[in-house]
Amino acid sequence: MDYELHNGELIVTAPFNSSQARGLARFLAHLSVHGEQRGYGEVYGTVGIVLRRYPDHLRAPNAAFLTTAQLPPQTSPEGYLVTIPELVVEVRSKNDTQPEIDEKVNDYLAAGVLLVWVADPGARTVTAHQPGQAPVVFTTTDTLTALPVIPGFAVLVGDLLPV
């Protein structure tokens, strides 16, 4: 079991099912190849990020990407990221409600994240959120990009979210 802190309150989160885990593995692999291996930054698997303090507000996106300008990252005494990533990925579970997803996206954007991807393995879509812009939904035949965070990142959504 993982957890998050929402304004100091402990929230327990369920482990991934096989579809979510498989999708996350592909996101991490592509972020590593297109981002980290090309020298644009570092990719992190599920990692705690301190979005606010007093009371503590800690989210744990399924993936995060810090650009080279953000390295080395600042961390809390517990080892959580204090540096806000420029890109985060949330892989939606069947139990996630739309208001819960919206709250996470809003938390990330308010903290300074430039690009939030919400992957839905069931629908095989990725919704991209950026500050001040309407969300954009990418389907299996669409190419997902990571601008302005990772130049040259381009992957078919169908390759990220297998059947």
Gross CATH architecture: Alpha-Beta Complex
Low-confidence stretches: none
The number of domains is: 1
Q: Report the biggest beta sheet as strand number plus sense, adding barrel if it closes.
A: 6 strands, mixed
CATH superfamily: tt1808, chain A
**What is the total tally of β strands?**
12
Number of helical stretches of at least 4 residues? 3
CATH level-1 class: Alpha Beta
CATH topology type:
tt1808, chain A
User: What is the N-to-C succession of helices and strands?
Assistant: EEHEEEEEHEEEEEH
Rg value: 15 Å
* Main sheet strand line-up: 3-6-7-8-9-10
What's the arrangement of secondary structure elements?
Elements: E1 2-6, E2 9-13, H1 18-36, E3 41-45, E4 49-52, E5 57-59, E6 63-67, E7 87-91, H2 98-111, E8 115-120, E9 125-129, E10 136-138, E11 143-146, E12 150-156, H3 157-160
Parallel strand pairs: 7-8
Antiparallel strand pairs: 1-2, 3-6, 4-5, 6-7, 8-9, 9-10, 11-12
Description:
By secondary structure, the chain is α+β, with helices and mostly antiparallel strands. The chain has one domain: tt1808, chain A. The protein is 23% helix and 35% strand. It is built from 3 helices and 12 strands; from the N terminus they run ββαβββββαβββββα. The strands form 4 sheets. A 6-stranded mixed sheet has the order 3-6-7-8-9-10, sandwiched between helices. A hairpin with a 6-residue loop joins strand 9 and strand 10. The protein is globular, with a radius of gyration of 15 Å. The mean pLDDT is 90.
